[in-house]
Amino acid sequence: MLDLERLRALHSVATYGSVSAAADVLHVTTSAVSQQLAKLERETGQKLLERNGRGVRLTDAAELLVAHAERILSLVEQAQADLEAHRGSVVGQLAVAAFPTAIRGLMPAALRALRADHPELRVQLREEDPMRSMPLVSRGDYDMAVVQDWNNEPLPMPEGLHKGVICDDVADVALPSTHPLAGRDTIHLKELAGDPWISSSSDSICCDWLIRTLRAVDSEPNIDHMAYEFATQLSLVAAGLGNAILPRLGRCDVPPGVAIVPLSAPLSRRVYAVWREEAARRPAIRATLTALRAAVPGGVPDGVPDGVPDGRRREAARVT
């Protein structure tokens, strides 16, 4: 009978391209992966890896086995989810990835509630940009990811993932208090054409979004400074070095020298959780989504249409 952990090791090598990368994902040593693969070769009577320069490549036999391993591992996950659902208890481990604002604005309260309500659940949290975390959920590195997209630029949803809305997060413009438009009740982005801007780092989803959003209103981006953290961006705004667009979720205290002005054409991002279809029945997934929704701070919409009664609001936001 084929050993499950050896199949998992082979599948990880095929997915990540090398023995060392598979070892990193599986949190074991390179030697441990090599030993698992050697045992699997003896178990199957087939050569599975061949030297390819300084690395390795899968043989035809390995490619055939990987295709079966993918289905087997998926069925195992479904079986685990069904068992947890049958038991009805929130137990086990849940690896969660979230973007920085969600970690600051949602996760502390959600994790505290989960620890109090479900002491047998262990949540492991990691910070990841949404463009990276969603593929990692698809591949099984994480059980859930908290991600975001903008109302003017939806994030593509990989096949095989489910999602549940957590909230809608409105964005405002942060201006130096000396800016001529700092005293306005609202402002349109077109009115800021030619101004210098402060953005998240160039490898983030927010930087790409800012560039495309400004170009959509015929304002060629003039990004002089990049900083990932909102607190740092606000410090740069306070110094008079540019403007920034900042969502309300997880925003830190606004320092002196900064004026926050709402946009007349509102921009908002939808924050939601994603998980694999095979894990949808896990009580831990449902409990974590519930905790995240309860952690949304006052003043941030929950993403469910107004006028829906409380019970139906929860149902309407459950899965889309």
TrEMBL record:
Q: Where is the composition biased (Basic and acidic residues)?
A: 309-320
Q: Which domain of life is it from?
A: Bacteria
Q: Which PROSITE patterns match?
A: HTH_LYSR
Which SUPFAM superfamilies has this protein been placed in? Periplasmic binding protein-like II, Winged helix' DNA-binding domain
Keyword match Transcription: yes
- Where do the record's region annotations for Disordered lie? 300-320
Any one cellular component term from GO for this entry?
protein-DNA complex
GO function term, MF aspect, one: DNA binding
Keywords tagged on the record: DNA-binding, Transcription, Transcription regulation
What is any Pfam family matched here?
A: HTH_1
HTH lysR-type domain: from which residue to which, for each copy? Answer: 2-59
- Family label: Belongs to the LysR transcriptional regulatory family.
Q: What is this protein called?
A: LysR family transcriptional regulator
This protein's species is: Actinomadura chibensis
